[in-house]
Amino acid sequence: MTLNEIREEYRKIWGDLPVGPLCLGIIDFVASTPPEELHFLTFKTLSTAVGKDGPDYDVLAAVTILTSSRLAIFDAHAMLVDDDETEHELTPEEFAEAKRTGTLIHPETGSPVADFESHVVPFFAPTDAIYRELSHG
Questions:
Q1: Residues 135, 38: contact at Cβ < 8 Å?
Q2: Span between the terminal Cα atoms of the chain, in Å
Q3: What does DSSP assign to residue 6?
Q4: Partner of 25 for a Cys bridge, out of 50, 76, 101, 125, CB 3.0 to 4.6 A?
Q5: 125, 77 Cβ separation under 8 angstroms
């Protein structure tokens, strides 16, 4: 499915709901941004893209839809930021295991990370199919 086809599906399904214009705004942002600038999209970045000061319920709902629906344009990722500001991208398996067990094992030290939720930053990147379209569009 192309980004334009996805946009039309979102318009049909969610267009009349508060989250609809936000989904469409985020899709437009993705379509108008160079692909090399889309590899680390935070809730703040996506909120700003749709004219919000920061994430609110509707932005969170829009990003959830854009990440988890059958028409997903994003893959969800997570970054562990150490106390010394060192960043470590977590694999989906590492993050899922941490959520399941309540314990995150540091990818380098092998030690449990205390209060890991406060050190994990979720971020989003276009799916491979969307990257391909944007790179060849």
A1: no
A2: 13
A3: H
A4: 50
A5: yes
Report the b/e string of 58-68 with b at 16+ CB within 10 A. Answer: bbebbbebbee
pLDDT at 132: 92
pLDDT of residue 103: 92
For strand 87-90 and strand 120-126, is the pairing parallel, antiparallel, or unpaired?
unpaired
State pLDDT tens for residues 36-85.
999 999 999 999 999 999 889 999 999 999 999 898 999 999 999 988 88
Q: Is the dihedral of CA 91, 94, 96, 99 positive or negative?
A: negative
SS3 75: strand
pTM score over 0.85: yes
Beta bridge partners of 76: 124
Cβ pair 83, 93 in contact under 8 A: no
Using CA atoms, how far apart are residues 83 and 96, in angstroms rounded to an integer? 22
